[in-house]
Amino acid sequence: MTTPTPTTRTWSPPFPLDLGVVLGPLGRGPGDPTFRVDAGVWLTANTPVGPGTLHVRRADAVEARAWGEGAGWLLDGLPALLGAGDDDSAFRCHHPLVEQARRRWPGMRLTATGRVWDALLPAVLEQKVTVSEAHRSYRELCRRFGAPAPGPATGLVVPPTPRAVLGITDWEWHRAGVDGSRRWALVAAAQVAHRLEGAFGMGGEAGRALLRKVPGIGVWTAAEVAQRAWGDPDAVSFGDFHLAGIVGWALLGRGVDDDGMAEVLAPYAPQRHRAVRYIKASGVRKPRFGPRYAPRDHRIV
Fold first, then answer.
1. Are 97 and 279 in contact (CB under 8 A)?
2. What are residue 241's phi and psi, to 5 degrees?
3. Smallest Cα–Cα separation from 186: which of 251, 119, 135, 102?
4. Which residues pair with 51 in a beta bridge?
5. How far apart are alpha carbons 53 and 173 in whole angstroms?
6. Alpha-helix runs per DSSP H in 161-298
7. 77 in the same domain as 169
8. Strand positions, DSSP E, the chain
9. Cα–Cα distance, 279 to 289 (Å, whole number)
10. What is the Cα 218 distance to its own chain's centre?
11. Residue 108 has what pLDDT?
12. Which UniProt keywords apply (predicted)?
């Protein structure tokens, strides 16, 4: 079978750019069938005009190729995807660790995919379970209910569409390890997915508030979507099992809860998420005082 000829684009960013750092948040763990890093970065997407595959690599300039019905849409959105719409000029470092991280990673910018549903699906799967559980469920759902990715990248698939999610049976959810609360949240979101895409145009807190109108989507999930879909610089993932501890140990040398994290991050508003990205990039982790949370297998009868 002949591989379709890709649509191409070359773009020269007017700022330092680290592809891995900028696009890294779009990957969902080892074996993610919608995202791959080799000689560049591959990603798949459900665009407003159809499925598409994008390959981006950095040479003297950024070289991008795209396949499928969504190829043109993906290439049009390339600058935003790589952070061209991200403005960090007003960002100020209030802690030495943040300042050091910013100097070390000058090519870190916030991606904006423009795709709400593609960010929402894995975010809901990551609610209140271990990362390994969520990634396993996402892999299984994508491979079984996603579409083969256009183009030459063997093994890549496009994430399941809202229509595909609405067709998943109870047994198939169970087989993928997805419990009832996450399943119901995804079904509720899929039923109004066309309206939720409007959150991208609203942006900021207004966009996050729209997402939270769906039962089962709270502050954490809305922030995770906002960070990726429109590069929201102030969307902090409050409610995360680990994040408050990481921020507290990095900036205060002790653990804090969400209220403590909100207090220590307050000087960074309206760019608190950017500060968190620098903190996480620094590699600081909270000490472990007990056993790790054990994954659950919802497929066990």
1. yes
2. -65, -30
3. 119
4. 46
5. 26
6. 162-166, 170-175, 180-191, 193-196, 198-202, 204-211, 219-229, 243-251, 258-265, 272-281
7. no
8. 7-11, 35-38, 40-47, 50-58, 62-67, 147-148, 157-158
9. 21
10. 16
11. 95
12. DNA damage, DNA repair
pLDDT given at position 101 = 96
pLDDT tens per residue, range 15-61: 999 999 999 999 999 999 999 999 899 999 999 999 999 999 998 89
Q: Around Cβ 132, how many Cβ atoms within 10 Å?
A: 11
Q: Average pLDDT of 163-186?
A: 97
* Rounded Cα gap, residues 35 and 157, in angstroms: 9
In a domain, 220, yes or no: yes
Q: Helix %, strand %, coil % for the chain, to 5?
A: 45, 10, 45
CA distance linking residue 61 with residue 13, whole number of Å? 7
Same domain, 130 and 199: yes
Six token digits for residue 267: 């000087």
Query: pLDDT tens digit string along 206-236?
Result: 999 999 999 999 999 999 999 999 999 999 9
Count of structural domains within the chain: 2
- Indicate if the alpha-carbon torsion angle 242, 107, 81, 31 is positive or negative: negative
How many CB atoms are closer than 10 A to CB 260?
A: 17
DSSP bridge pairs for 37: 41
Flag whether 50 is in a domain. Answer: yes
Query: Residue 166 domain-assigned?
Result: yes
Residue 285 has pLDDT above 50, yes or no: yes
Check whether residue 128 and residue 80 sit in a common domain. Answer: no
141 and 192 in a single domain? The answer is yes
Tokens of 260: 């403590």
The Cα 75–Cα 66 span in angstroms is 7
pLDDT above 90 covers a percentage of the chain that reads: 90
Start-to-end Cα distance in the chain: 43
Exposed/middle/buried for residue 29 (C-beta within 10 Å: 0-12, 13-18, 19+): middle
Domain span at 172: 116-229
Looking at the domain assignment, is residue 248 inside a domain? no
